[in-house]
Amino acid sequence: MGDTEDRLDSEISTLLTEERSFPPSEEFQRLAFVRNGDIRERSWAEPEQFWANAAQGLHWFKPFDRVLEWDPPNAKWFLGGQLNASYNCLDRHIKAGQRNKAALIWEGEPGECRVLTYWDLYREVNLFANALKGLGVAKGDRVAIYMPMIPEAVIAMLACARIGAVHVVVFGGFSAEALRDRINDAQAKVLITADGGYRRGQILPLKHDADYAIKETPCIEHVVVVQRGNFPLRFKEGRDHWYHRLLEDADPYCPPEPCDAEDILFILHTSGTTGKPKGIVHTTGGYMVGTYTTTKYVFDLRHDDVYWCTADIGWITGHSYIVYGPLAAGATCVMYEGAPNWPDRDRFWQVVEKHGVSIFYTAPTAIRAFMKWGDEWPARRDLSTLRLLGSVGEPINPEAWMWYHEHIGGKRCPIVDTWWQTETGMIMITTLPGVDATTPGTAGLPVPGVRATIFNADRKEIKTGGGLLAVTHPWPAMLRGIWGDPERYKEQYWSKWDQETYFPSDGAKRSENGYFTLLGRVDDVLSVAGHRIGTMEVESALVDHSAVAEAAVVGIAHEIKGQAIVAFVTLKEGSEASSSVEANLKEHVVKKIGAIARPERIVFSADLPKTRSGKIMRRLLRAIGEGKILGDTTTLADPTTVEGLRRKYEEQEEA
Ligand code: PRX
Question: Domains of the chain (ranges plus CATH)?
Answer without folding.
Answer: 26-508 (3.40.50.12780), 525-654 (3.30.300.30)
